[in-house]
């Protein structure tokens, strides 16, 4: 299980197209805000437009957003299309050893976010939804100025 300051454990997840993605290697070298969500999670759906806006605004600064849907592919794809979410998303079936648990969220509360440095270290975690895009930026910003790389 990932812990603050520790390296994200190796996990094989899948893209929406069913291709394997090795985490954290999939985003190695890039600071990443990982957001775990599910299509049935109302707070998750509420914050996703703000994550999309943050992703679009920060793409040039090097902080990427990656979603991990603890859901089935069809439900995840439908929701992402409906909300216009374009940042990368992976899927993992929910369960006692899902990606959320392995990323430090044993209670399974969603949404759950993890800020990962370019070298794969967990910098911080956030349980629950962000209030808005500014809250996301404020959560990431102290680490941006210290150098997520």
UniProtKB/TrEMBL annotation:
Keywords linked to the UniProt accession: Cytochrome c-type biogenesis, Disulfide bond, Redox-active center
Disulfide bond listed as a keyword: yes
Pfam families: Redoxin (PF08534)
Subcellular location: Cell envelope
InterPro entries: Redoxin, Thioredoxin-like_sf, Thioredoxin_CS, Thioredoxin_domain, Thioredoxin_ResA/DsbE_sf
PANTHER family: THIOL:DISULFIDE INTERCHANGE PROTEIN DSBE
The name this protein goes by in its record: TlpA family protein disulfide reductase
The organism of origin for this protein: Thermomonas beijingensis
